[in-house]
Specification:
Elements (H helix, E strand, L loop, with lengths): L3 E6 L8 E5 L6 E7 L6 E2 L11 E9 L10 E9 L6 E3 L9 E4 L4 E4 L2 E5 L15
Parallel strand pairs: 3-4
Antiparallel strand pairs: 1-2, 1-10, 3-5, 5-6, 6-8, 7-9, 9-10
């Protein structure tokens, strides 16, 4: 059973399109590359204001204390880091580009070049049905 996270384009030619990525295994980290370079996980070939590798979005799955109701609990942590881009990476309405690595929460909007993206709420599945839980 795979669990996913998604990133939605909030502007540009892919406005409304959602990219889905598999969550890392518990104790692991996954880093998504964002930029114009061919092969980036989030490819912004259409955005002349984005750098070849403009930013990195990280997701880390950390184990947490188990309880009687949950056997193998985990928490997802998200971070965003500028890749020394020329035009900066921005979060929400902050007019200053991010410095270093910043934490993100699901629902957060961020801008890479001219493209706005949103980190979506992770999807979880009921193991018995493979249908999303509501």
């Amino acid at each position: 059973m795979a669990k996913d996270i998604s990133i939605t384009f909030m502007s540009g030619p892919y406005d409304g399109r959602t990219l889905v990525f598999q969550q890392p295994e518990i104790g692991e980290e996954k880093v998504l590359l964002i930029g114009r370079r061919e092969g980036c996980d989030i490819h912004l070939h259409f955005d002349s204001q984005s750098s070849r590798i403009h930013a990195r979005l990280g997701l880390q799955s950390m184990p947490v204390t188990a309880s009687e109701s949950v056997d193998n609990p985990f928490a997802l942590n998200f971070w965003l880091e500028d890749g020394n881009s020329r035009n900066g990476t921005f979060v929400e309405r902050d007019k200053s580009p991010i410095k270093g690595r910043v934490s993100l929460r699901p629902g957060t909007l961020f801008r890479v070049g001219r493209t706005w993206l949103r980190l979506d709420v992770p999807l979880s599945y009921d193991e018995s049905s493979d249908e999303p839980e509501l």
